[in-house]
Amino acid sequence: MTQHYRITLLPGDGIGPEIMAVAVTVLKTVAEQLDLSFEFQEALMGGAAIDAKGEPLPMETLEVCRNSDAVLLSAIGGDQWDTLPRHLRPETGLLGLRAGLGLFANLRPAKILPQLIDASSLKREVVDGVDIMVVRELTGGVYFGQPKGIFTTETGEKRGVNTMAYTESEIDRIGRVAFETALKRGKKLCSVDKANVLEVSQLWRDRMTTLAAEYPDVELSHMYVDNAAMQLLRWPKQFDTIVTSNLFGDILSDAAAMLTGSIGMLPSASLGASGPGLFEPVHGSAPDIAGQDKANPLAMVLSAAMMLRYGLNQAIAADRIEQAVLKVLDQGDRTADIMSEGMTLLGCQAMGNALIQAIS
Ligand code: IPM
Ligand code: MG
């Protein structure tokens, strides 16, 4: 029987629409092969929504997302919206979407592909074999804690405030996702915090330690975030699964991503307790190359694969897409960001066509 899914597409800004178009064709191709059917509905988000509706996350977009089986987002943002008041910025729309869908768990894999090993700025022996999953808490911590704002003190001076806060239940639910993730991987979990300075981190560490008793097969370690940043560059192969708070995860996942050479290759999944997940590339909207058919669509396509695997439980379809990506790389097909000597330079659309061929 045909499995039917309703997918919301948020093409967003910059290169977003171009890479989304490739992901959609790839999904359609796999759907035909595996008796799946996708109903795609497009909605406005980010700068595109600001221009059309005056706000980065219109209520109707959130509704459409809630009424779907999964949400695929390309990228949002651009210079023209950076000077708007904070509540009107594209990023605020993304935070609203995460909160509105309850997406507290963000999975960001950073796996080095043998074909791209020389694209890394680190030595081959350091990055060869790197396969890290960063599990980032996504709806709490300093991004959302209250109070926040820019206030005026009694002396008339301005004071900016954000609050880094976590409740036990917020820590436990991300902790469980991380232990479960580690169980399916190398069974090693490193919890990253700043417990030598921050109370919120002490509670984080205490809860992770308590949770570890429920997962005797997972080896838990703790690391301070400054050291973790250093260790990621020094010897990244020591890491299997990392769990950390919203802000630390934001920073460390970019560092982990860059180990692989190009942020243009990395997908991510954001999941809640129930309801649709959100799947998006780790990279941004690259306004400098937008509309020029130069973008690398592979992170977007791999995000569609993550959607199939983690959001829709369609592992076979996910495998097909991931294998197609490896195949085109083996053939020597490259977009500009991952180009090296002797390889074939392709634009965004041509890379899409190569993927379709590889799948068919
Ligand atoms: C990310 C981005 C976002 C974040 C921004 C765009 C709000 O950097 O997804 O990592 O900080 O979470
Ligand atoms: Mg970030």
Descriptive account of the structure:
The mean pLDDT is 96. The protein starts with a strand and ends with a helix. α1 (16-34) packs across α10 (298-311), α1 (16-34) packs parallel to α12 and α11 (315-330) packs across α12 (348-359). It is globular. A 10-stranded mixed beta sheet has the order 2-1-3-12-11-4-5-10-8-9, sandwiched between helices. A two-stranded antiparallel sheet has the order 6-7. The chain has 360 residues and is α/β, with parallel strands linked by helices. The chain has 2 domains: 1-101 and 275-360, Isopropylmalate Dehydrogenase (3-Layer(aba) Sandwich); 117-245, Isopropylmalate Dehydrogenase (3-Layer(aba) Sandwich). β11 and β12 (277-281) form a beta hairpin. It contains 12 helices and 14 strands. 3-isopropylmalic acid (IPM) binds next to α4. The site of magnesium ion has 2 residues, from α9.
Structural descriptors:
360 residues; alpha/beta; Isopropylmalate Dehydrogenase; ten-stranded mixed β-sheet; 12 helices; 40% helix; binds 3-isopropylmalic acid; binds magnesium ion
Sequence-ordered SSE layout with sheet pairings:
Elements: E1 3-12, H1 16-34, E2 36-42, H2 47-53, H3 59-66, E3 70-75, H4 90-100, E4 105-111, H5 124-127, E5 131-137, E6 145-152, E7 158-163, H6 168-183, E8 188-193, H7 199-212, E9 219-224, H8 225-234, E10 241-244, H9 246-259, E11 267-271, E12 277-281, H10 298-311, H11 315-330, E13 333-334, E14 344-345, H12 348-359
Parallel strand pairs: 1-2, 1-3, 3-12, 5-10, 8-9, 8-10, 13-14
Antiparallel strand pairs: 4-5, 4-11, 6-7, 11-12
Helix pairs in contact: 1-10, 1-12, 6-7, 8-9, 10-11, 11-12
The structure holds 3-isopropylmalic acid and magnesium ion.
